[in-house]
Amino acid sequence: MLNFEVLQMDGKARRGRLQTTHQMVETPVFMPVGTQATVKTLTPEDLQEIGVQIILSNTYHLYLRPGAELIERAGGLHRFMNWPGSILTDSGGFQVFSLSKLRQISDEGVYFNSHIDGSRHFLTPEKVMEIEISLGADIAMCFDECPPYPCTYQEASRAVERTSQWARRCQAAHHQEGQALFGIVQGSVFPELRRQSARELVDLNFPGYAIGGVSVGEPKEEMYRAVEITAPLLPDEKPRYLMGVGEPEDLLEGVARGIDMFDCVLPTRLARHGTAYTHQGKITLRNATYAEDFSPVDEECPCYVCQNYSRAYIRHLIKAGEILALRLLSYHNVYFLAKLMENIRSAIEKGQFTDFYQKFYQQYKF
After folding, report:
1. Is the pTM of the predicted complex or chain greater than 0.85?
2. Active site residues per annotation
């Protein structure tokens, strides 16, 4: 169902291999987000060409539209979207809890109003497992409570208790061959709550663990501290996943603290705003300074976009409102992060991760 092996370590950085039902995934890995069963503007063939091994899809959004039953009748999410690689589905917990004005939470579950049509829904851990089993991803996430930032100690403590309770219920309800269920550690910025959550979830012996409740508005130092506290408490022999994190520097910092998996909407979201990753830092191509810049998006990038199109051309597409601009920038940004992770894996294999880390910060401008 799921096999994970740490092949090599360099400090706390781990070079591993994750075998799912559909594909061998080389770790550490970045997972592009395909919220609606698509990574925005990119085809599955694009993703394969880029070297993407695993993507994330969103249970909440797919439950509301087109519906888990329809996707199950189509043969599951892989066949529905024609993606041969691995898929992880999040539980929808973050989306539900971000709808603070549209939901009511209790120990039993969450009532919420659809952001699409206002219809009323009730999600329980058991219902979420039913949905994720119908979707048929390789990895499913437990239903958890993600507290906002900032929150009080009492609010964070209650979320930890509920997350542990729901994790037990998810585990009891999840019986699906070929699909692994991961637990999610919560605790906000409170070290003792992070430790409590990790302890309680490790006792349940999930095949993998995520660190949730980060990248929700807290300072980066707080996020890094949460990872430093939590990662060493998770089993060495199981994959560790940092949820919702995708800035290049955060991927590097996460790997340095022992993280194996990451996901984020940023590559495609930035593309929709005309912003591209480069080895020197982010650039916003809609700016006038690029109107007559005929150089590639990134001189050091070997991707299809950088080999064939100029900054000036892409800026023209942005200003003209052409969809191709979003597609080209999305392709480049996803490629940039996929290549970054490939280079990180290579550095760990060679015992050169510290050198790679230092060179990155010497070159990358924030």
Report:
1. yes
2. 90, 263
